[in-house]
Design brief:
By secondary structure, the protein is of the alpha+beta class. It has helices spanning 3-18, 21-27, 49-61; strands at residues 28-37, 44-47, 66-72, 75-81, 88-97, 102-109, 130-131. It has a single domain (3-115), classed as Nuclear Transport Factor 2, Chain: A.
Length: 139
């Protein structure tokens, strides 16, 4: 994935951090698909820009978490983590159709058993990689 995907992921992180529904919606295709693996009945699949925008907004709003850009299966993605202890509480993988330059698929893993490897001591949050509401890195 090239710089275009990095820009999409950074834009998604800023839109979520800012709770900017218009910016979030503008990054998603009309037929975007979101799959949430929660390990319980709260997970599932959602389709369509308005529905996915609402689900992402509500999911992020409910969490005491921050975002940082990470590599998920070799592609840019986002980690949701608790600033207090650095624990990863979610991993968001992004798929894009290169011809549209927009996000067409999202996979959010929040099941604790899926996050085990993300929470090993060897993976502490890297300084300067958080995405703050103003878009500036910490550090």
């Amino acid at each position: 994935m090239g710089p275009g995907m990095n820009d999409l992921v950074k834009g998604l992180g800023r839109a979520l951090a800012d709770q900017d529904e218009a910016a979030l919606s503008g990054l998603l295709t009309r037929t975007v698909r979101l799959v949430i693996d929660s390990g319980d009945l709260t997970g599932g699949e959602w389709r369509g820009r308005d529905v996915v925008t609402s689900v992402l907004r509500d999911r992020y709003r409910r969490r005491d978490s921050s975002l940082r850009m990470v590599h998920v299966n070799g592609s840019p993605g986002l980690a949701l983590y608790r600033p207090a202890d650095g624990a990863v509480v979610g991993i968001l993988a992004i798929g894009s159709r290169s011809d549209e330059g927009m996000i067409s698929e999202l996979w959010l893993a929040v099941a604790p058993q899926k996050l085990t490897s993300w929470n090993r001591p060897r993976n502490p949050p890297a300084p300067g990689t958080s995405i703050h509401p103003n878009g500036s890195p910490d550090g």
